[in-house]
Specification:
mainly alpha, three-stranded antiparallel β-sheet, two-stranded antiparallel ribbon
Length: about 180
């Protein structure tokens, strides 16, 4: 059985890994947004796209996917956007909610303490019984796995759009 110190170390490692992974995914998303929206490369373009809120970038990705006729590409974009949304939700929780030990199991969990977050996570099981939803460390580890998958699929998307851009450049050069 892991000691209390080992439990906290494991939780902090998972939080750090998820936050760093999400930062990498957001950086990759900037490049995907540039590719998907067919923006002309410019020196400060990535810096401008990076100022957008990640939720808005994900919405742009979803909206752009609706305009793609190729079903495989559409599905890949929507799947990537879905993964990013799921990871963002977990990332936001672990970044803004304290880790507390569960009194019954002894495991560490992420539990909201701010009134608005506490009320959002409140569930009425019966007329007089209420429970507060907490996020387990296992869910964070699952989000890390999903994040690694999203990083790989994002790289595939970037490679595919690079090929499309090269093909369009070749076609426009041949037309001249």
């Amino acid at each position: 059985m892991p000691t209390e110190k080992e439990k906290w170390k494991e939780a902090c490692e998972a939080v750090g890994e998820l936050i760093l992974l999400y930062t990498g995914l957001d950086h990759q998303l900037n490049h995907i947004i540039i590719a998907v929206t067919h923006l002309t490369p410019a020196p400060m373009l990535e810096a401008v796209v990076a100022t957008l809120d990640p939720r808005h970038k994900i919405e742009i990705l979803k909206a752009r996917a609706d305009h793609i006729r190729q079903l495989d590409w559409k599905k890949a974009l929507k799947t990537h956007a879905d993964r990013l949304e799921r990871i963002a939700k977990v990332r936001n929780t672990v970044a803004h909610v304290p880790i507390v030990p569960n009194k019954t199991t002894g495991k560490l969990e992420f539990a909201a303490t701010a009134a608005t977050k506490l009320l959002k996570s409140l569930k009425a099981e019966s007329k007089d019984e209420y429970t507060v939803t907490r996020m387990s460390l296992q869910r964070v580890k699952e989000a890390i796995e999903t994040g690694n998958e999203a990083l790989g699929s994002g790289q595939e998307l970037l490679e595919n759009f690079a090929r499309v851009r090269a093909a369009l450049a070749t076609r426009s050069a041949a037309a001249l």
